[in-house]
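Sequence, please.
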């Protein structure tokens, strides 16, 4: 009876080394390779921590509360102001940067270049040599944007005199901040600091920001959550593709600028600046996500990730149930994707920028399945994009019914990255992002896909288990 099995066509599942699967393929046998890895890479310490926290009943309630606060957040663009007068704790000698904490001497080329540009813009240095000397002297302090309720794309530099968007979460009352997107080409966020870069920053400060401020005074605030939700239905994922979102914002702000009574030239130039910059909404999407995620931070026992950020050297995450300024970091990965002609992966700086705040919120790479055109920018296929979005549900605690993905039958985007699930499944969050050249000022050289280092989540779990052990 048992021997009849071998008289039938076999459909074989191979578990373990793929060498056996290769032999089966040679014999044209029907087989599939089952890729299995032990949770947490089989680390005894991590497995023990996972087993320990699995017994803590407080976690699920804490995660529901954290996700609820994030989901209920309602960010509005309410004003423009300078960083010094708008960001709590900002000081004249302080410069904010993307990613986790880092010292000047350890910064990547684009970040150092952007700081040089900021010191030139602030008129604290007359040239590159003076700026480098000042940055290294200790007279200027550096801190992560994320520790000041702010975010910045790529190098993410915010200096005291720079204009910032002021976003208010009207559900919980907290605010978030971000600079104005400069557009493409030679720009500060990629480390450029030539005369044209400084001139553009001066124009943004002296002409553009005052105009937007007057328009916003007429508006009563612009609903960024509504724009994001609509843009997701129009082919954006609100990280690397913002064509629809910028157009929707342009539609909103233009009427308010007309009502503000601006002079003809100022009005024309302000509108043209937004109209010609498809990435403008990125610097609104990011602080909108930041305001929502900050509302979900500080929930005791929560294992939900509230920050993912990179400084071009290290990748860092923060977790709701841990201390506000407690980072878990590891060396940043290189972005894999499409390079502009003439460049190689060796030319690229490691992963850089605060823009992964969008993925932390469940959009960006998490919503690629609804933005098929993004694959032309970051590489891969539409099937890949849909697969990434579908896979993210396995590592998240919930979904966001307010941000839905048409290509997934309008399923809510995955929300609430859970450090436990990341380690249990071995699935890492997906981020789509631009690639910066490792040298200051060269600019963007491509775009692609990157994942956080698993070690960030391993550190976070061990620290979490240590903090709460015995409290349960």
């Amino acid at each position: 009876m048992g021997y009849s099995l071998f008289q039938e066509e076999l459909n074989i599942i191979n578990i373990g080394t793929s060498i056996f699967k290769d032999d089966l393929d040679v014999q044209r046998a029907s087989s599939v390779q089952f890729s299995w890895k032990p949770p947490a890479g089989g680390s005894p310490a991590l497995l023990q921590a996972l087993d320990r926290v699995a017994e803590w009943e407080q976690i699920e309630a804490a995660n529901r509360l954290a996700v609820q606060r994030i989901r209920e957040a309602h960010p509005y663009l309410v004003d423009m102001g300078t960083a010094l007068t708008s960001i709590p704790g900002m000081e004249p000698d302080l410069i904010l940067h993307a990613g986790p904490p880092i010292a000047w001497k350890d910064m990547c080329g684009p970040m150092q270049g952007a700081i040089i540009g900021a010191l030139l813009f602030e008129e604290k240095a007359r040239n590159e040599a003076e700026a480098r000397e000042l940055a290294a002297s200790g007279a200027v302090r550096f801190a992560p944007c994320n520790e000041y309720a702010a975010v910045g794309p790529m190098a993410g530099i915010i200096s005291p005199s720079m204009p910032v968007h002021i976003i208010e979460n009207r559900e919980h009352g907290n605010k978030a901040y971000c600079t104005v997107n400069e557009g493409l080409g030679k720009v500060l966020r990629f480390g450029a600091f030539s005369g044209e870069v400084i001139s553009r920053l001066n124009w943004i400060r002296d002409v553009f920001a005052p105009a937007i401020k007057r328009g916003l005074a007429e508006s009563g605030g612009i609903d960024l959550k509504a724009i994001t939700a609509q843009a997701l239905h129009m082919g954006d994922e609100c990280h690397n593709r913002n064509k629809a979102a910028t157009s929707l914002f342009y539609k909103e702000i233009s009427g308010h600028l007309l009502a503000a009574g601006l002079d003809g030239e100022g009005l024309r130039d302000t509108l043209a600046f937004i109209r010609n910059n498809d990435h403008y909404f990125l610097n609104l999407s990011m602080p909108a996500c930041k305001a929502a995620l900050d509302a979900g931070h500080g929930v005791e026992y929560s294992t939900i990730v509230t920050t993912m950020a990179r400084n071009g050297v290290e990748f860092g995450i923060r977790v709701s149930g841990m201390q506000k300024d407690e980072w878990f970091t590891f060396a940043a990965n290189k972005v894999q994707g499409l390079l502009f002609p003439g460049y190689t992966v060796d030319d690229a700086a490691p992963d850089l920028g605060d823009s992964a705040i969008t993925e932390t919120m469940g959009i960006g790479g998490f919503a690629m399945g609804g933005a098929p055109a993004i694959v032309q920018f970051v590489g891969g296929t539409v099937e890949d994009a849909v697969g990434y979005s579908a896979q993210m549900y396995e590592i998240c605690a919930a979904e966001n019914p307010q941000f839905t993905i048409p290509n997934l039958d309008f399923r809510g985007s995955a929300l609430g990255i859970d450090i436990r699930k990341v380690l249990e499944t071995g699935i890492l969050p997906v981020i789509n992002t631009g690639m910066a050249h490792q040298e200051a000022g060269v600019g963007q050289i491509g775009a692609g896909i990157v994942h956080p280092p698993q070690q960030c989540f391993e550190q976070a779990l061990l620290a979490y288990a240590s903090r709460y052990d015995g409290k349960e």
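The first strand starts at residue 11 and ends at 15.
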